[in-house]
Amino acid sequence: MSLVKTRGLKFTYPMAKGEVLRGVDLKVESGELVLIIGSSGSGKSTLLKVLSGISPYLTGGTLAGEVRVLGKNMKRRRERNEVPGRVFYMPQEPEYYIIFRRAITEATVPYLEESSKLRQAELLGQKALRKWLPQISPNSHTATLSAGEKQRLVLSHLEASTSELYLLDEPMTHLDAEGRELFRRCLTEKVRQGGAAVIVTPSPEGYWELIQRANKVLLMEGGRIGPLPEPVHCVDNVRSWSRTPETPLEVRSPSPTKFKRSENPGGRLRLSGKSSRREVPQRGKSERYEVRKRCPIIEVHSLEVSCGNRELFTGLTFAIFEGEVFLIKGRNGSGKTTLIRTLLGFVKPQRGVLKAPWIGESGWRGGSGLKVGYLPQNPMDIFTCETLIEDLRLSWAKGRRSEPFSFASRKFIRALYLEGLEKEDPFNLSAGQRQRAAIASVLIGFPQITFLDEPTRGMDRKSYVALKRMLGELSPTTTIIISTHTDLFDSLGDKVLILDGGGEGV
User: Fold this and answer.
1) What value does the CA radius of gyration of the chain take, rounded to a whole number of Å?
2) Residue pLDDT, tens place only, 388-442
3) pTM of the entire structure?
4) Which of 209, 211, 227, 229 has the largest count of CB atoms under 10 Å?
5) 375 and 382 Cβ atoms separated by less than 8 Å
6) CB 325 within 8 A of CB 471
7) Which residue ranges form the domains of the chain, and what is each CATH number?
């Protein structure tokens, strides 16, 4: 039975200049796994919204062509109303899926449908939390969870679901290696049981095992969908097709400066390896750039930070110097975002010393004379204006104005592939476009210190390369601190701090 059938499917958002979907033909049978790869803004998320019934009925817009889901005509209200409950839809941003304040409540809800007893459903919810989020308390506030933890919480719903069709929008964006493996096992079991799954992603990286198992691997560009070129159907060829030759996926500095846990009981992190004053390989062009080491811009001594009853790290000691690229890495829930917010002065540590020009006794105080740029995990928090160009102008005006706005805006718009989006409302952009726009908004102020919290959210391979190149060019004039669960920035990093949720580094 065809669970999804579209023919000549077209869709246009209200006030949009053109069609987002331009004649999509797609067929998905029961028990099939379909992977759709497409660049940012190609229409992937819109396709899933149409198949789930969200568009145009909640978003507005014009729908044309044939679209049937589970045999129901999605253009007819009576038939469309029979689909919810039989389709599981996971949006790109997991925070839009989560409803309840407590993690245990959110994890319990999917089991209420199959269990008439609340206590039994709660026990199943607790079991799901232990599997997907073992490091958090069941009473944790969902708003305090990291993006990776939120995605894991949503995926616990996937495991509990008995739907026939699974529509998953970039389901592994925020997941660490362990979370990805959990997801792959869960999805494979759903398909084995006869369900069908459609996954969209901007890049095949991280999906190699699913590509091997997929019944179809399709390419989406410009609102149209079709098969990948024949030579790239096998996994090895998809790998090479998706990479840029001069920027391999995992590049590590030959002798990266890292932090290791000392032998003392407090678990203090100490600097080890080669001298912290060293040359950074292949930064910018072929020339080598020596990081300037004068006074540290951030000093951390015996820092201890907790979130609720959970101790994130203790005995944390390190220094960040002007011009360095400092990487904070770790699994989901290890405290990467909390550490960045602590370094900014937004979170007050329980113990220890934190010295930075913008931090006073009560936290962030500003007025230091230093321009500080911050990209939060959710790029929606960046935008305040009705158009992208207005947001860029505002950020530039608040920054150092190192270059005229006309020149700076053109540079960042071109470098981050934002041409043609200048007059668009940032809230109407795709997730990948919005992420690139937020990064441009932060960097156009030419901050002297830049904090980037998981900056690759929703990005395709081309965008990864562009961002990496740009940061390499900017690093001599700005100190850059990046939190990430990937290896994409390893070749840029002067120092790497690896958190494991207990203040330990490797």
Assistant:
1) 23
2) 999 999 999 998 888 899 999 999 999 999 999 999 999 888 888 999 999 999 9
3) 0.80
4) 211
5) yes
6) yes
7) 2-242 (3.40.50.300)
